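Notes continue from the previous slide.

Worked example: a multi-chain complex. Inputs as given:
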Amino acid sequence: MNGVFKRTYSYWFLLPAGIIYLLIFLTPTISSFFFSFTRWDLSDWQYIGFENFRMFFREQSLAIGFRNTLIYAVVTSSLKVVLGLLLGVLLTSKLRSKHFLRSIIFFPTLVSTIAIGIAFSMMMHPTEGLINSALSVVGITGPDWLGNPKLALLSVAFVDVWKGVGIALVIYIAGILSIPEDYYEALQIDGGTGWNKFWSIIVPLSRPATHSVIILSFIGGLRSFDLIWTMTKGGPGFTTDLIASIIYKQYQGGFYGLATAGNVILFLVVAALAVPLNLYMNRKEVDL
Amino acid sequence: MNTMTKMKPGLTLLSVILLAGALSACGGNDGNEEKSSASPSQSETAEGTADAKEVTITLSTDNSQDAVNTANAYIAAFEKKYPNIKVELETRPGGTEGDNIVKTRLATGDMTDVFFYNSGSLMQALTPEKNMVDLTNEAFQQNVIDSFKSTVSYNGKVYGAPTASTMAGGWFYNKKVYADLGLQVPKTWAELIANSEKIKEAGMTPVIGSYKDTWTSQLVVLADYYNVQAQVPSFAEDFTAHKATNAGTPAMLRAFEKLQELHDKGLMNKDLLATTYDVGLKMLAEGKGVQYPMLSFATPAILQNYPDQIENLGFFAQPGDDASSNGLTVWMPGAAYIYKESKHVEEAKQFVAFVASVEGTEVASTVSKPTGPYLIKGASIPDDVPSLVKDMLPYFDNNQTAPALEFVSPVKGPSLEQITVEVGSGIKDAKKGAEAYDQDVEKQAKQLGLSGW
């Protein structure tokens, strides 16, 4: 009781933010749970129970999104971790051009995803694209990067990594620079090698950075949409469809209830994967 | 949606104030106008029609070159005839993206007064009763040929009028290459394949695939409908009632098999998944590709971009397995609809009546050459249409045409284009593709609330 009376600010100060939160976050979230159980055309709805969810899991062209999304998220986030860490080590060393290189690697992050998608899909054209033209100069016949169903998803994931590794790099640079010098001195006294420095100091002590990168890029990968839509529109066929692009296509088709159900599923999937991942990694964190 | 309008009290208050300001400003203006029209001193600018109040109506069409040209031509001629009505054109993307925009604008009460949109199954998906003005008893409907009316009708009421000529789905081909290789227009599918093999031996691409624009992949399946209905006349009805499926009807499955055969025999360009519709047209015009399964609505684009090559091109219906029943699958043009909440229904009706008149077709044909007969009684095709359009006319004259499935059944799945990409590029076989499509249409049928699904 005392605590309440001694507060500097009254609870009324929370009201504006609370109303905004209620109206534009909570209401849509709750209503989307409701509409996912309906057949809905934006004005009329009809309650149909779990039918939308059943359809989402049963239809092959919808279910393929789960597998693809998981592959995409795992591939992009693991590549961003590995490349981000290696580049971070390189660009915190006593390299002369490191500031210039940092800018170069960070630059793609600043470019619009749509522009990157269009540029890369032109470069990845099987016969006239820059990549395969360059490969043919050295006598290699490049594959159809975006047309080959086995390759297309990985091609887009590669572009995602190219675009996003700059963020991972920045986080790693901050993480590595915050490691106190004492550890390196101790290593020197013990006569450790460069490999020891990397494996026994940098990797474990930049774990907070690793966790941020994993969480950010994993969630980003799970809900990724813009890049895949500009590059392949989920094609060829359905081979690069992610949950988000499938949901978008259901909206386009006018299946608002079904699409909302997809969003609810996506929400649950992201939560089910990200929350335990976060808990697990928090437990593993080491104090500096 | 409600939450959007209720967003923030502050904003609401602000917008109420602004709105009130705007309204009072309007009122003020109205007063001024009345005053000025009443005062004789300022009447020098007014002409004979000055007492007719000027009204602006809005029109929405898709943003393809041809659609915009046609809409602008209609508007220019209409405004000349009715100087007191101004028409403002708004464009929207084509394809499923455009469908989404139209549906959303209708649902949120923000549609243009008149909108040009597809007839057939796509129109059925717009809940016409709620969103469109009933045009059944308008005088101009007497000009419209009956076969069109059913494609813009819902529960016995007619909601639209045609905005263009009919189109056909079939095969463009290069007549010059055909002559050089001594080929004949195929009357059966086997002949088409034999021709294609010969073209392949001669080192050219026999069949153009432009699957980067996924919608183009559907043509082989959709243009086969003449052959389907020739074998199974009740298919559309049974399909709508969920008594027949694509995979379970051999004639329909055959359409998917034809597409698979094109892939299996390697008759399409290798980079078809990276080829766009525009590039496909270019390949056809330049003779790199010899045959292109496509809608005849590509004709104006070819005419505009490759005027020198257009006379080298011909058109034939997609052949079936039996030479004696050879006919053309016809696409009905889009229609003009009037938004039910429009504030200018009368003016909108005048505009639609103009579009659906012989005069309207003459205006349209000046900017967009017809790709088949018009659906307005008394309208004729100009003599200077490309010869490939003339290739189609015998089918119409001999009554060897059938409307495509989407005009006789409201059930069309949104993912057909992805499925046909899979079949045409070998990811799925015909049977699996047809089965996947059966699942896809189920969503549409349920959304429409059809009985039997």
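Summary box: The domain at 57-284 of chain A is CATH 1.10.3720.10 (MetI-like fold). Chain A has one domain: 57-284.
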